Amino acid sequence: MKKRKLLQKLLSGSKNIRFSEVTECVKAFGFRMVRINGSHHIYSHPDVQELINLQDVKGQAKPYQVKQLLRIIEQYNLKMEDKTV
């Protein structure tokens, strides 16, 4: 899925977001995986103090974690990287 279309899906507030779609979006905004601890996938960004914690629950992302990601993107005014997802 194209990254702009993927972002629109996240912004739509859908509760049916696949975990793989969220991880693609996280990477498109410049986050890098720091570690995996059980089902928790932890991402960091050089310009963001907070960490992103995503959980894979039967292939789906948790809606509150998607909202946290979108809040951080807006709060830090992050832009998508030029490379395609």
Plain-language structure description:
With 85 residues, the chain is of the alpha+beta class. It has a single domain (3-75), classed as Metal Transport, Frataxin, Chain A (2-Layer Sandwich). The protein is 38% helix and 28% strand. The chain has helices at 3-11, 19-28, 63-75; strands at residues 32-37, 40-45, 48-57, 60-61. A 4-stranded antiparallel beta sheet has the order 1-2-3-4. The longest helix is centred in the C-terminal third of the chain and has 13 residues, at 63-75. The protein is globular and about 30 Å long.
Element string (H = helix, E = strand):
HHEEEEH
The CATH topology is given as: Metal Transport, Frataxin, Chain A
Helix/strand/pairing category = alpha+beta
The quaternary structure here is single chain
Average per-residue pLDDT, rounded, comes to 92
Low-confidence stretches: none
CATH superfamily: Hypothetical protein
| Beta-strand residue percentage | 25-35%
Helical content stands at: 25-40%
Could you say which overall geometry the principal axes of the C-alpha atoms support? Answer: globular
**N- to C-terminal distance:** 8 Å
**Major beta sheet summary:** 4 strands, antiparallel
Q: How many individual helices?
A: 3
Indicate the CATH architecture: 2-Layer Sandwich
CATH classification class:
Alpha Beta
Tally the structural domains. Answer: 1
